[in-house]
Amino acid sequence: MAGVLEGRVALVTGASRGIGAAVVRRFAAEGAEIVAIARTQGALEELDDEVRSAGGKPLVLVPEDLCKPGLIEQVAAAIFQRFARLDILVGNAGVIGGGLSPVAHHAPDDWEEAFAVNVTANWRLIRACDPLLRMAPAGRAVFTTSAAAGGAEPFWGAYAASQAALETTVRTWAAEIAKVTAVKANLLDPGPVATRLRTIAFPGEDQSKLAQPGDVAGAFLDLCLPGCARHGEVVRANP
User: Fold this and answer.
1) What is the pLDDT of residues 185-210, one digit of tens each?
2) Distance between CA atoms of 27 and 8, rounded to whole angstroms?
């Protein structure tokens, strides 16, 4: 039987490990054609081998930094040339911004990196992929967020502020396109998941007691199905 994403084209960022890799595996198992972006070429190649071995379509690998000038626009142009549309955009890449620190003590480079990756890169994805998503019969976009966006927990300044900015950006875009396109855009908070980012924030934590990346991949899939009617929401994977 064909998977529920058969014939659909997906772009996934932060795809080489953790939640991004789990989403790629799940989408590939459902028949999607996937463009996978991450900085680590070796990890991407291992993921591609894994997907092929499981019967999925070969991945289109983009081993680059999302913040590289012009990269996102080049990828969008290549997707148009090859597929003439984009059905699914998953903006999953994120950084914690140098680790937890008092706001007054953040190194400028760490603060700027948090906003460059968590906010600006996703805005550039929206800007470059909006036309491609509109070309699809049922374009879907999902961005990974965190409960940190809604709070004021000590030491989470750069990450929390950048996630709050991401949520505002995506929900504003969603409001703008709500009545003029078939595109649906949402944010997904996967909750505490055993990832590298989580390890940086909570060193020494027993990650075996947390949800694993594969446990939340289905929540991303649900928001990317053609029949999904949710739009402009912050969805909790484990409410």
Assistant:
1) 999 999 999 998 888 888 888 999 99
2) 10
β-pairing verdict for 9-13 and 88-91: parallel
What predicted TM-score, i.e. pTM, was given to this entire model?
0.96
| CATH number of the domain residue 142 falls in | 3.40.50.720
pLDDT at 103: 92
111, 143, 156, 159: which is the annotated catalytic residue?
159
Q: Domain for residue 209, yes or no? A: yes
What are the pLDDT digits (tens) for 158-177?
999 999 999 999 999 999 99
Mark the ranges of the chain whose per-residue pLDDT is less than 50.
none
Q: How would DSSP label each residue in 70-103?
A: THHHHHHHHHHHHHSS-SEEEE-----SSSSB-G
Q: Domain for residue 55, yes or no? A: yes
HSE, CB side, 13 Å, CA atoms: give it for residue 74. Answer: 10
Task: Using DSSP, state whether 50 is helix, strand or coil.
Answer: helix
Number of domains into which the chain is organized: 1
**Helix 108-115 and helix 157-177, axial crossing angle in degrees, nearest 10:** 20
Distance, in Å, from the CA atom of 154 to the CA atom of 177, rounded to the nearest integer, reads 35
In the residue annotation, 159 being an active-site residue is answered as: yes
